[in-house]
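Customer escalation, tier 2.

The customer says the design service returned an amino acid string that "doesn't look like it belongs to this structure." They asked us to rerun it and document both sides in this ticket. The original structure tokens are below, unchanged.
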């Protein structure tokens, strides 16, 4: 079995502070104690690395000049060439992370994924390149906003991050090097401890994401929400799919987010694409439509309804 190689992934757009942070990280004796490290550069920024200042001297810098070059074959070759024990990646903010995820060898494990951003320009990136911002936020553990000044609206930056991930930590790094963590609480807009967790139409996307991040938390709970029904002739009697279409960042990424529903009574006379108000108990169990264990809605009450004012659920 191949030895596991930890990967430290730094993402962000140009002039976001990635190079500076990586330079400081590799110059830190606490982090760099001489491990054979591949530093993979996926963009040519303004700042340049100073290898002479790295704490350990076994750092091997390689550059990937185009997204097409980022392949598993290339990465395996570089790892073999330098006999690396770990990898640090400065990723190009204009490339989709799926390209990297598809390319990393199976024994490369992403230990940490960080996003760096210029606090004064991040909102503009979000307004004009929302899909790329979402791409970088979805799996990162920490966002570091550099150079915050009086013009920066921290509430806006907070909402942008939380619109994609509730788990990502947020920090602000000031010119003097001090780090301030965003400790703003984000209570869910519904009561998870209520006998019936009622999901407002505007909160479906937020609920489904929270649900997907910790399904076990909802096991045995009763939920009530408005959704669209999916039924076809291949489904057994009393079985349906219920959920809503969710848009994370743009029209191109709209996906149906729904769950298998059982115990649907005959008297509801549901048809495909009917809108309903569903009250159901969630159980984690095997179902043939999943082909494995998954969250199953056990219908308690189904009431036909009109479509919500906004049929596509969003995070805003």
């Amino acid at each position: 079995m191949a030895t596991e190689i930890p990967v430290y992934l730094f993402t962000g757009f140009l002039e976001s502070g990635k190079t500076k942070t990586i330079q400081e990280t590799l110059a830190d004796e606490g982090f760099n104690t001489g491990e054979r490290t591949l530093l993979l550069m996926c963009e040519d920024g303004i700042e340049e690395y100073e290898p002479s200042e790295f704490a350990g001297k076994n750092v091997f810098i390689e550059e990937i000049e185009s997204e097409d070059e980022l392949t598993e074959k290339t990465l395996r070759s570089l790892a073999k060439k330098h006999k690396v024990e770990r990898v640090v990646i400065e990723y190009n903010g204009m490339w989709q992370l799926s390209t990297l995820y598809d390319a990393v060898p199976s024994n490369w494990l992403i230990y940490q994924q960080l996003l760096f951003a210029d606090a004064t320009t991040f909102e503009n990136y979000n307004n004009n390149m929302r899909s790329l911002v979402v791409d970088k936020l979805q799996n990162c553990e920490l966002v570091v906003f550099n150079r915050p000044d009086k013009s920066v609206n921290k509430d806006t930056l907070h909402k942008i991050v939380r619109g994609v991930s509730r788990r990502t930590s947020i920090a602000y790094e000031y010119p003097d090097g001090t780090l301030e963590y965003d400790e703003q609480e984000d209570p869910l807009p519904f009561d998870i401890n209520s006998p019936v967790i009622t999901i407002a139409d505007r909160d479906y996307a937020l609920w489904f994401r929270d649900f997907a991040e910790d399904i076990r938390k909802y096991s045995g709970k009763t939920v009530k929400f408005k959704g669209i029904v999916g039924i076809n002739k291949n489904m057994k009697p009393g079985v349906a799919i219920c959920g809503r279409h969710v848009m994370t960042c743009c029209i191109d990424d709209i996906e149906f987010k729904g769950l298998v529903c059982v115990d649907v009574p005959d008297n509801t006379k549901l048809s495909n694409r009917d809108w309903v108000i569903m009250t159901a108990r969630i159980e984690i169990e095997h179902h043939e439509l999943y082909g494995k264990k998954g969250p199953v809605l056990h219908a308690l009450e189904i009431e036909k309804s009109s479509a919500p004012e906004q049929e596509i659920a969003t995070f805003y």
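Tier 2 assessment: The sequence is consistent with the input. Helices lie at 18-26, 72-82, 97-103, 122-128, 130-137, 154-162, 204-213. The first strand starts at residue 5 and ends at 12. Sent an explanation to the customer and offered a walkthrough call.
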